[in-house]
Amino acid sequence: MRARMPDNPDETTEISVRQAGARGGSRTLERHGREHFQTIGRKGGKRTAKLYRELLSDFGKRGGRPRRPALDEYVGEEVGK
After folding, report:
1. What whole-number distance in Å separates Cα of residue 10 and Cα of residue 7?
2. Can you give the residue ranges of every domain in the chain?
3. What is the C-alpha to C-alpha distance for residues 41 and 52, in angstroms, rounded to an integer?
4. How far apart (Å, rounded) are the C-alpha atoms in residues 59 and 16?
5. In 10, 39, 60, 67, which residue has its Cα 20 to 30 A from 50's Cα atom?
6. Residue range 17-51, pLDDT digits in tens
7. What is the chain's alpha carbon radius of gyration, rounded to the nearest angstrom?
8. How many helices (H) and strands (E) does the chain have?
């Protein structure tokens, strides 16, 4: 996926944010390769685990992922009275 520069410098081509991100990701992949993405993903996961260790531990105790509070947790014990 190669971006083409317009022939006239005054001419602009509009692209969406999603398209720009896809172009940037493709270009990074071409330049640095798959190993680069694996490395930065691993570093990000370790950093997240370090910063949010207690929160992630709580998620694990709840079954492995965040759980929405039940309606009675929002309203309190007033439900059913």
Report:
1. 9
2. 17-75
3. 16
4. 36
5. 67
6. 999 999 999 999 999 999 999 999 999 999 988 99
7. 23
8. 4, 0
